Amino acid sequence: MPFHSESRKLECEVSLIICMENASPGLVQLLQSFPMISLATSAQGRELAVFMEEHSMSTGALEVTFTRGSDYFGLLAVQGEHSITMCIRGPENALLAVGSLSTRSSFIRGKPVVVGYLQDLRVSKTVSASLRQKYYEFFTEFIRLSPSLPDLDHCKYFYTAILSNNAPAKAALSRERFTLEYSKLFSYEAWIFPKIPGLGLLASFQSIDVPSKEEVFAFYHAELGSSMYDLDPKDIEHLWEYSKPICLRENGIGIAFCLLVDINRLREMKVLFKKMNLNLSLTSTQVFALRVAKKVSHKRKSEVKSALLKQAILKSYSLNSHLLGYMQVENDIEVSSHLLFKTKVVTRGDIYRVFHPDHTSLEGFVDGFLRPAHTATFEWVMS
Predict the structure, then answer these.
(1) Any residues with CB less than 8 A from the CB of 351 and at least 6 apart, and which?
(2) Fewer CB within 10 Å: N-end or C-end of the chain?
């Protein structure tokens, strides 16, 4: 467990947010070298949520904003065990920059590890180039020191996601003065299934198998851990209150499971189509932890996975959201052709391993990379 000082505040202790009151001596020393950086607390959750909504990600003709409801930390709490959010503030304490790291239990080469996810890097256009550079330098130093710091459980495996067509982000992270290395691990496709008018009536006649909580947890305890950066049963626990499970059976035994997750009160997607000046607020249900049992033959896995995804799409019509989202990662089981799958909108992205050059000498450093045939895990809900 991370170091906690005697004077820590209850808010940090309960939420597992790393702030000044529970930071380790090593992190405190680092912060003293960067006086322009502060660590956010749970009391600032609303302010951070507003900042995120006001600073969107631009991808050409689109601006996409993932809102955070009324509390920025709500999503971080379901994504993992610990989080740390770094801020820059300007005159009158105005928020100018935000960036977060969260950690969760995971698996690399079948062994349990702690992995960290970098997210929500937003910097106001009013921040000077020199201050922006200092902000990146702090991130660099924190990640460099993380294996020796208890704050994020000595995490030494960090990753992040970048949309494939987000050239500005890739250019910014490739600057020579930015020491961190971004090494591509694999690609993914984010599939969005809009709800087709009239299909809801057809879906209402479908029989969907809803397994018990005990059966769901037994399945995931047995099946998780085989892919790189895989989910841990703790992730299922964190998201259970937001989830509806479904499964496929064979001879009465569940052979494929997934959760339909609704975290719209924690995050909602807003899309601005610049050319048409059209602004949409979209709620979504996410297909989470779709797994086919290991005992299913390789020949049948595509068929089984496709059948469960079809059931997920149909079940989503009974849920109060505009669309269904699913992540298909590189080298994963292919989905067979079906009329329902042809309606999807596809956005492509890449997962990068983020490390400091000093990390190359760490024990197990090379384990964090994928071999050609490896399948890795990336779930939309966790990003």
Answers:
(1) 159, 160, 161, 184, 185, 186, 187, 188, 229, 376, 378
(2) N
